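We close this part of the discussion by returning to an individual protein. The encoding preserves chain order, so positions in sequence and tokens coincide. The sequence in question and its structure tokens are set out directly beneath this paragraph:

===
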Amino acid sequence: MVSDLNTVERQLNRYHVKLIRKNYYGYTITGLEANIRSVLEEIVQSTVNHYDLATIIDLFSVKPLEVKFGISDELDAIYQRIFKIVKQLKILTATSLDYNDILTIAIRLGIAVARLSINRPINSYCPVSIKESEKNQLPYQLFQQVFNCYDFSLLQDEYAYIANGPNANLKDQNIVVLTEKILNFVSTSTGHPYQKDNQLRTNLFSHLMMKLTSQYKFTNEYNPFVADVKQKYPRLFHAIYQVTKKEISANPAVVNDSFITFIALHFLVSLEKYVNRNHNIRIVYICSTGLGVTNLIQQKVEASLSGVEIAGFASFVNAKKEIKRLQPDLVISIFPLKEVTVPVIEVNPVPSNQDISKIKQKIADLKEIPEELLTPNNQTLATTNKREETVSRDLIIKGFTVYEQVKAIMGHVINSKYQDALLLHILMSVHRIYYDQQYQQVTDINHAFIKFIEPIKQVYLNNGLEINDSELVAIIEYLNFS
């Protein structure tokens, strides 16, 4: 029981209502009447949600009319009478309000009746004073008939509470100033320049104008996106909560999850538009040869992140030249690079999760968006097999092309019985170069064959292959065999 009371106390504190515990006396609550009614409204609304709103709606049009929320016998009796009047007025009165709005008015009416029954008005006892046109609307008609039914005076503050909830003075807000405050605070908190989006400014202003200055205000709107927004965009959600709690109302009945999420949806539209129009980050990958390991890095990066594209590959030797030619947004290298104006991220030959995290953070900074928007590239996994097939085919074609050109250079001095072996050797050398697994041990070379070194090296270079001296010496060995 003590644990339950502590939970109740925490919930009441959200509404600035205190739970008073007195020995030999019991428990009571203290606080502003508007805050106490907000607590009661949340309790009844929560009960209605579990009771099933569709069932309540059906009760407006079927007989017999029975409503039991199970909160207390007194409240059930009050709502029984109110819904009977609601049913009659819904038929007689044309209204643009939906059942959800009517249900909110009915719930507030029940709370007002219950509180007035123990002499707890929301504010003053001033008689109601509204425009004649408003008297023909369903909220006032319902207010009038229910209060007359209980012989209560028609009070201005009670009607304002029923129509607008506990914060009837929200319409006093300067919506233009409020819009700017929300935009600036959320932009600063999330690090995204929302304040630069004029369409967002217009949409947010219109939304706040409708919510805060309309004739009737209802706080139990169903929003199916609440859970997704809170889970996927926690920084955005928290930023909106902080600024709306400060600038609009600290009352959780007003600034609730649904209210925050509806505002967040406008920001997410702006964010999605920004991401879509923002160019992909062009990346140059650099390793010792500019091929094999960089292909592995490329695959891992693209599998982890969307919004990136290949600008090109380069070896450490020609890195600066290629960076200047390709003008990428970012360079990913397994070697430290100096005197490069483009941002460089140094990674391990086999990128770790920490490497991917660094890359993700840099790309988010370059795109000026939150990291959570850089989702995995779903197409990458689907195309991995296709890419590997393409790489294999290209290596075979490239290897045969190199073989033909090398054969033209030194084929006349190679014994015919070794030419098939040379073909296989060159195919494998292309494969080794691509995957950065070249021979490393340099052996002596027959000086009679030095003249073939540069032409063969140039053949490989012309085909985008950075061959080292060990591989060149291995090819020249076929001349020794001959």
